[in-house]
Amino acid sequence: MNAEAYQHVLVPLDVSDEARQVLARARDLATRYGSRLTLLHVVEPVIIDTSYDLIGPLPVEIDAPLLERGRDFLQRIAREFDLGDAKQQVELGPVKGTILEYAKENGVDLIVIGTHGRHGVKLLLGSTANAVLHGTPCDVHAVRIHENGESD
């Protein structure tokens, strides 16, 4: 591996089928460069405003099932792509800011992210990809998501 090679590739994923297109590209790049690969799923905190007193405080933790769903998805997709050594990280926070913060704090030098669309990973990562592209000091590889499941 040369000095120009990427050392740590971050792949932000949501829990959609389209995430597989992004991960396939990230796996290929990580293999090509001999890079460490981290799968990241970010859960936006659920905020309930009870200021109108029509709804009392909810007794259940709403974020916990979403975090667990994210962990389960990352485990499944890592097995599907045979990524036994890839780190799997689930975080709670604003998606864009959490991706950027994770990249900066963990020495990420390439982020592979899905690009614009209408649903699933495409809806989540359309504006997110733009924010990541303009907010991170590392390289960003954008994967165009296609309806038929094939990426460019």
How does this structure look, described?
By secondary structure, the protein is α/β, with parallel strands linked by helices. The chain has a single domain, classed as HUPs (Rossmann fold, 3-Layer(aba) Sandwich), CATH 3.40.50. 39% of the residues lie in helices and 19% in strands. The protein has a 5-stranded parallel β-sheet with strand order 3-2-1-4-5, with helices on both faces. Strand 1, helix 1 and strand 2 form a beta-alpha-beta unit. Helix 3 crosses helix 4. The longest helix is centred in the middle third of the chain and has 18 residues. It is globular, with a radius of gyration of 16 Å. The two termini are 26 Å apart. The mean pLDDT is 84.
Helix content: 25-40%
CATH architecture: 3-Layer(aba) Sandwich
Number of helices: 4
Looking at CATH, the homologous superfamily is HUPs
SSE string = EHEHEHEHE
CA gyration radius, whole angstroms: 16 Å
